[in-house]
Amino acid sequence: MPFVPPGMHLLKGAIDCHVHCAPHLSGRSVNAFDAVRQAAAAGMRAIGIMCNFQNSSGLAALANDELGHLGVEAFGGLIMQPTAGGVTLEAARTAIGYGYGPGTGARFVSLPTHHTYHVAKREGRGPAFLETTFRVPENGVVPDPVPAIMDLCAAKDVVFDCGHVSGREAVALAEEAKRRGVTRVRTHCTRYAEDEIRVIVGTGAYAEFSFFVLTHATQVGLTHVDEEKHKIAANSVIQDFSPRIRAAGDRAILSTDAGVYLLPPPVEAFREYLMLVESEGFSEAEIRRMIRDNPAALFRIGPAPEG
Q1: pLDDT tens digits for 143-172?
Q2: At 158, is the secondary structure helix, strand, or coil?
Q3: Which residues on neighbouring strands pair with residue 23, listed in sequence order?
Q4: Which residues pair with 222 in a beta bridge?
Q5: In DSSP terms, which residues pair with 106 in a beta bridge?
Q6: Name one Pfam family in it (predicted).
Q7: Alpha helices in 123-234 (DSSP H)
Q8: Which candidate in 160, 227, 247, 267 could, as Cys together with 153 as Cys, close a disulfide (CB 3.0–4.6 Å)?
Q9: What is the distance, to the nearest Å, from the Cα of residue 274 to the centroid of all Cα atoms in its chain?
Q10: Confidence at residue 307, expressed as pLDDT on a 0 to 100 scale
Q11: 54: helix, coil or strand?
């Protein structure tokens, strides 16, 4: 019998909602079609394609059109980096409608990842660059046009993603989104304090924890928003993650943030990540909730087609 690596059974029906694939400026281990084929071979249900440079909903729609018979649903969305139109209502509206007809456009609209004050300051960017970045001021008032973008997400029933902001900013954004009737909110809680995570999930938002920052890929400078290459600070051990994941309770989501050439392809990265999480005492039922039930509920992923 062929050798089956430990943990492969956990991937049956799983959803990796954070995959980066080619085409891209940085080297990638898979293109969009590879990512779908490999997910299908592992019995996964869906993948979420993310890109720091463009709206990925068209790429996802193309993958579904060509490979939908494999039973893996690809979905994409917009990260509002400057190269993708910036933080504007028009960019968000365009992304939601961009696909192969109704329902095939962006499944999420995200604030910037590497064009936020929080990340740019960590990268040591200069004052002129920092001045252009997104941030929520210390008074917690969410700046325009973000409230209007939240209203659009609520009306179109798509995910509002808080992007790579600080924990304080994510709390303010999640609370404002709730006030505005947004029922689908994703936050990236890998580095947040446990108390911040509890407040965030208390609003009904989901807390995502990605594999990338546990890996050796953090040792290499990569292109994220422009030609400058920067390293991402590592959370070097799974023990740093566990209390945060537990703080998120039944609103936690696990994803890979894989696809960069330095890491195994996303399916293998997912398996390795789940083995680390399981080693911390999380049960199979808890893991399945974090990789199947929760992302399916957040991104409106239905059951696999029969046949």
Answers
A1: 999 999 999 999 999 999 999 999 999 999
A2: coil
A3: none
A4: 230
A5: none
A6: DUF6282
A7: 127-132, 146-156, 167-179, 194-202
A8: 160
A9: 17
A10: 54
A11: coil
Share of the chain above pLDDT 90, in %: 82
The alpha-carbon radius of gyration of the chain (Å, integer) is: 18
Backbone angles phi, psi at 226, to 5 degrees: -155, -165
For strands 206-210 and 185-188, give the pairing.
parallel
Q: Other C-beta atoms within 10 Å of 194: how many?
A: 15
What single DSSP character describes residue 300? T
Residue 173 pLDDT > 90: yes
Q: Name the one residue in this structure whose structure tokens are 């779908």.
A: 36
Cα 228 to Cα 223: distance, rounded to the nearest angstrom: 6
Bridge-based pairing state of the strands 206-210 and 252-255: parallel
**Tokens matching residue 284:** 């199979």
Would you identify the CATH topology of the domain 8-299? TIM Barrel (3.20.20)
Closest CA to 273 of 295, 252, 293, 258: 258
How far is residue 194's CA from residue 258's CA, in Å, rounded to a whole number?
Answer: 25
- What is the DSSP secondary structure assignment for residue 79, as one 8-state letter? E
Local confidence band at 196 (pLDDT 50, 70, 90 cut-offs): very high
**CA 228 remoteness from chain centre:** 22
Backbone dihedral angles phi then psi of residue 41, each to the nearest 5 degrees: -65, -30
- Three-state SS at 210: strand
The DSSP bridge pattern shows strands 77-79 and 108-110 to be parallel
